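Incident log, entry 3
Record: Sugar ABC transporter substrate-binding protein (343 residues)
Problem: checksum mismatch between cached and fresh output.
Input:
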Amino acid sequence: MRKQKYWHVVQKILCPLLLLSVAACGQQSAPADSQPANDPAQDTKQLKVGIVQIVEHPALDAAREGFIAKLGQNGYEKDKQVVYDIKSAQGNMDQAVQIAQKFQADNVDLILAIATPAAQAAAQVTKDIPILFTAVTDPVAASLVQTMENPGGNVTGTTDMNPVEEQLKLVQELKADAKTVGIIYNSGEVNSKVQVDAAKAAAEKLGLTIREAAITSPTEVKQAAESMVGKVDAFYIPTDNMVVSSISAVIGVAESQKIPVVAGEENSVKSGAIATYGIDYSKLGEQTADMAAKILKGEAQPASMPVEKQAEMKLVLNKKAAEKMGVPLPQSLLDRAAEVVEQ
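Fresh output:
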């Protein structure tokens, strides 16, 4: 009896303590891996962005670096929130397709395609991964989008269409008696054909004649320039990737024959052309990055994002190039220039 009475007393004391202990255990903090699903700290996925560039030259490189820098400012820092797979197709369309296929196999979150052939390659490979292009002259003519306002698929981006007429006017300001302008371009690039057609239309209004030299390989650039000596009063170099990547060949001929060169973009001026009135490719890349941030954040889809263009143009001159080509720079141009290269 005494043992039973004693056990009964013990139960009265221990049971409330056990209940308190169980309750306390139930109130302990949840482990770190059971945070609420909407906690931003839980979203640690590193995004993958594939970049395919048709060829390497200063303008396209500037667009790429501008994109990466600005996307970082939008909260997607390189090697932190996003990892990049950057590939150059070395001017080869088949290689551009292979790069795009690799991006598809790797299931990247977004593709940045730099220049028209690279964008066409990516669009040919995938209809599911968002594709943003930059440095594409006419995305409608290149069959990348349905319209500029409503792309309609998984592709959109920024255009680098030049103010061709204003650029040809520079020829007349540099050489008042100029009548014939030579254009060297890659016959396989849609963007180049678009610019040649625009140049022909603008030349007719300005009283100029366009002489064309179509090429299919970088090794043909110098020969094409030499074939125009004595037949043209100036060269106009559009934003043709093949020609721009070999612009030194044109500059060499122009300097030896004292033929002024007007270019489609400022990096070509810094490489030896005399003048351009056009866009800033670094800023174009930044503009593309702002579009990419919206897509990555789920705020927009390529199908309904209008193709954007750069509103601001700037006049860039190269004094040393003008001297080498025997062309004095008019003060009227110098006064309007946003940038004058001295080297």
